[in-house]
Fold each of these.
Amino acid sequence: MKETLKQAFLKSLPVMAGYVVLGFGFGIIAQKSGYGIVWVFAMSVFIYAGSMQYVAVDLLTGGATLLAAALTTLMVNARHLFYGISMIEHYKDADKKKPYLIFALTDETYSLVCSGRAPAGLDFHSYCFWVSLFNQCYWILGSLLGVLAGTVITFNTAGVDFAMTALFITVFVEQWKSTGNHLPAIIGVIASVICLLIFGRESFLIPAMLLIGIALTVGRKAIERKGDL
């Protein structure tokens, strides 16, 4: 157990650096919008959706309907459908850990567990559980610090939400550097650009996810052969 905790903590440290900052930004924005520490804590525990929590503040303050909130959530989090499917085999024997592993599978957590392997000698599902839990704790800590800071510090919060975009870019670069098979990443970038040009920035996300999913499914064997080279 101690070794599992140690390795999970060490592997999650890069995420901690990002999540504390991103959670901090979310906490500030939520506090400035009139939502106190209880709301922020509850959202970070039960929603735990990163960028969607930023969007949720706007939905709540703007009086969005339930349908609008549901559609927006689908658009923002549609990517989870695709990388979640790739973890079905890895998580199928996780037993009691499975519900939390599914719930806590964020982009950054996925980047740490998607290989389907734990450090030598460790149980994969226990390792994934602690990586997931550490990452959520970092997010909760950052969001609570942001609320506290927002109550005592007065400043212009414009641009704070760009921190989430910055983390996505960082994760992409790290994934690119850590693997020799860049074909999935290239497919993702090309598909996103094509859909952005066709559908515009407000509507390109779901078409891009569909196109990426189709391309990866159809070209799966070619991608796997490329990875074996």
Note: Residues 2-167 form one domain.
Amino acid sequence: MNNKKKEDVILGVRFQRTGVLYYMDPLHYGFRIGDLVVANSNRGVEIARVVSIKPKEQLDKNIEITKIIKPATKSDIEKQKEQEKEASMVVKKCRKIVEEMKLKMKIIHAEYTFDACKLTIYFVSDDRVDFRELVKKLAAEYKTRIELRQVGPRDEIKLYPNLGICGREVCCRTHLENFDTVTIKMAKEQGVQINMQKISGACGKLMCCFKYEEEVYKENMKGLPKVGSLVKYNEEDAKVIGLDVLNKKVRIRVGKKDEERYETVEADEIKKAAKPNKKGGE
């Protein structure tokens, strides 16, 4: 830890790899980034990882600060590993029951809270599912509180290792805490050819990358002409046929039909063409 006293710092912890960041009082314990703690989440008692350590005075006064229960011990970590094994068996058992009950749902994941007071089972489905009888059967089987939680395609993908089109692990598993809305309009503004197979991520939804670059494209577009507009380049008439928004460059067609040529120039090298005079019926 740094030179700050233990009581002067607050831990930032996550219960899941890309989950919500919680702020917690470390009590009298000393921690480093990467250490594990046992604490209360909105699901119950769980093990969390320390991802940040900040002085108290740097935090907003409106941020809720709770207390850890204790540092996670070796036996706590072993216990969690055993629970993960048991949870994988739950998934197999639950899938079998769902098949027998002919429910239109796909069981994808299960997890116990650290205190085993609750078993959460995640599923995906295109329809609303009445799973009350399923919950009763599972509660009788596992003798604990059962919660079935329906998740979307993006939440499903983040549960498994997947590579994006960039060759790196998908963002939802590495750093994304929340999913922002991504639209076709963003892709069009960024000059991407609309081919749904190529612009969709592993989850089948539009790639989150478009949201990352949206602000840069919007800012750069302010100084660029529209494709199809007429401009002046070195006192010659030209037509804009393409844009390189990130580099603020313009692709133009210059000259008359028999002598036309194509050039890519800096945006500040071109000028807007004067509007034609419409007087006299022109």
Note: The chain has four domains: 6-72, 77-151, 179-220, 230-281.
Amino acid sequence: MKLLVVDDDADLRAILAFALRGAGYFVVEARDGAGALAAAAAERPDLVVLDLNLPDADGLDLVSRLRGGDPASRPILVLSVRAAEEDVVRALDLGADDYLTKPFSPRTLLARVRAVLRRAGIERPEPLEAGALSVDLERRLATVAGAPPVRLTPLELRLLQYLVARARETVPAERLLVHVWGGRGEGDRQLLKQLVHRLRLKIEPDPASPRYLVTDAGEGYRFEPDGGQGA
């Protein structure tokens, strides 16, 4: 299930994205209104987590634009330091599905996200399908080419989701480190290499000659949905 997180505070955005990824969601990030509209059009998220205070747009106006005049479109969870009743009422009237006042805990955010998705009828994530790979995101079970399912750790799932979303594209190690471990430098290349190795042991027929999770030397990693040959 894909979520779009929009916040101009890079540190807070990283914390929100990290908490949501840890709960099994695929997260796309945007730091301003223009980025939010572009990401919403390109990524088609199932839910938008939107801060109202953005440098280039009125967050309340952005609620209407993201809705596109369709009350049945993607749900929106608004985040704001504005606690006044008139701000809450206006955001809800414009189409927001919920309103969460800062500061809040990650547990509260996750509970609100689940509630909004449940009300929208899309709480249960659809299986992740890519070529020979199928992943039950809720149970963290991966099946490749009809082999018995294997259970993934949260970090393995986060890495695999990101690579699958960019199938056949070489993703630099630095970008994977930020996505898997968050934006606070908690990962390094050796940890990433070990994580890739553990994931290969679970999904590759021959981990010594990976076909799905491929290394592009000096560049990064890519996922080949149909088991293309790699190094």
Note: The helical segments are 10-22, 33-43, 59-67, 85-94, 106-119, 154-165, 173-181, 189-203.
